[in-house]
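Regression test attached.
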Amino acid sequence: MVAFATALYPRCPMNSRLPISPPPVPETVSAKVLVVDDETISRRLLELHLRRLGHTPVLAASVAEARQLLSPDARPDFQRVLTDFRMPGENGMDLLSLLQREDPTLACVLLTATTDRQIVLDALRCGACDFPEKPFRQDELAASLQKAAEATRLRRHNVATEADALSVGQLQQRLLKSGSGTLSNGITYCHHPRHEAGGDFLNVVPLDDGNIMVLVADVSGHDLRAAFISTYFQGIARRMLQCKADVRQVLAFFNHYLVSEWNTVSDTGHQTTSIAVCALVLDRANRQVTVLNAGAPPPRWTGGRRPGTFKVEGGGHPLGWFDAIELSPSESVLEPGSHLLLWTDGLEDHAEQLNVSPHALAYRLLQPGTSAAHDCQIESAKDDILALRVGVTPRQAPAAHTLLHDFYRGNQTNEIDRFQDRWERTLKLSVPAIPDELMDIILLCLREACLNGMNHGCGRREDLSVELFLALEPATNRIHAVISDPGPGHCFDWQRHVTAALDSLIAEHRGLSLIFGLPASAKAEANGSRLVLAFELQPPTTPLP
Amino acid sequence: MKHELVNAPDGVRLSAVVPGDLITTTVESIRRDLHGLMEEPAVKRARIQCVELDLRQARMMDSAGLNLLVSLVKLGRDLDFRLRVVIANASLQRVLQFTRMDKLIEIVPATAA
């Protein structure tokens, strides 16, 4: 099971203010405290106090012993240090210096029997966070330890955030360059930014359980506000996920922030900022995919027997629009060899402009080489384009690339020329070297099959649709087409009917004869309501990737 | 529809140019135009022996287009004319051969027309 829970995230109250800082790490009863004191009685007394307060003390009689316990080999995982100042040999100040070198995030409480101002100043300089005087009361000790725990948490948070920012920055730097590439986790991407700020972004977050989370998002606008929100969202998301937050909490938190804080500053005249986000968690061991979608184009899968789309359940609107969001995870277990396709709406807009399928545009843009952007007329795109392909199994090439997955209503027979134009452009973009004669034959068969489905399978009804998908199978160098309609189908012996149609000059069955006779292979499934056709890309053609 | 009457050695031929594909969305207007031509007094008087469809501008012929050819073959049997088509596209030739229409009509490659 991946990181999403199944219940809806509760509605955020209008007047609630979620913390901007990451959620505090809950104090656990086993929080480890390193106690350093040379006097046995004092050590035991401190141990007793700490156990009463619910901590787990680890005792050291000297700074040398503490040094060993703090070494990386010991994997100490302390949350704070409690040390006496006066000790023979190395004293508490030496321990503070040691901590500065070894783990500057670990906060230290210094116990002193003196109010010597210089000692306090030196200790402050060395990073001590509190100085309870001996003898101390138990509540004073508890307060000092709480203060130290908070200091450790904040310091560690800052270090992690800095690392995250660096990581996000490095990824963004790569993405800001137009082109395509492959990330270390086997994710192939292409990015064609049209602006230098804001826009689309991709973030891949490794999760503790070995799963990965892929965040694809598109911030509205391309100004500095958009750039800030983009960076802020990525940092917050990464940090909250690492703090074990559920991704719905991340989205709910940021939605609340946008609605309640960012977008309320209306007097500046800025437009509402929103983020369309698709979060995908991939459990590669079980080939399980879970998707949460807030207003982004839904991810598709490809490569198996049939392509599919993760439907958007619930609201599905971008973050920043309304104060409440309803996000329902969509889950699927995919076939081996399947790949996931994600893209932002810039790709869909450009596909529409070119009158090609978005699948084909993504396929072409994700191909290596320099001609893809030119062939796809990227220079005329109006918005950023980000697309990526994620293998369910790392480093396994897709068994098939979906090129088109469309639905045509039963009453759209008079629009068949428009559909055919789209198929032709789609195929030409995907397989530029396709021979003209083969192209004509494919188009003819698709036309006949779709018209047949609309007329007979759908009865020309508006509420029924023919489904068409086209896929390219690199291993066999074939183009596959599957045409399905919701009708009952009927058995058909095409060879007998070809003869009958010719001999008796009847008008029927010629379409089906073409469908069954022209492709390299054709078979009818589901009593003929689903046609599976294959067309061979005749040699010589450029080897397919 | 552009057309002409040609006095060929084997009789008068009505040659009509089909301005594009012969497919579901065009076939009805082409059928109407052809029937209109057949009814013209000059064509009736000429007692044509051959109807030629110039399909050099066509790239596609679907089942509706094939059915138009079938109906012209039938009409030819009634009115005593034969049908021939001029084509320039390889896939059109393949379709006509596959459906055995080449046994019923004369197919002329564009280069030979």
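Expected vs. actual: identical. The first helix of chain A runs from residue 40 to 52.
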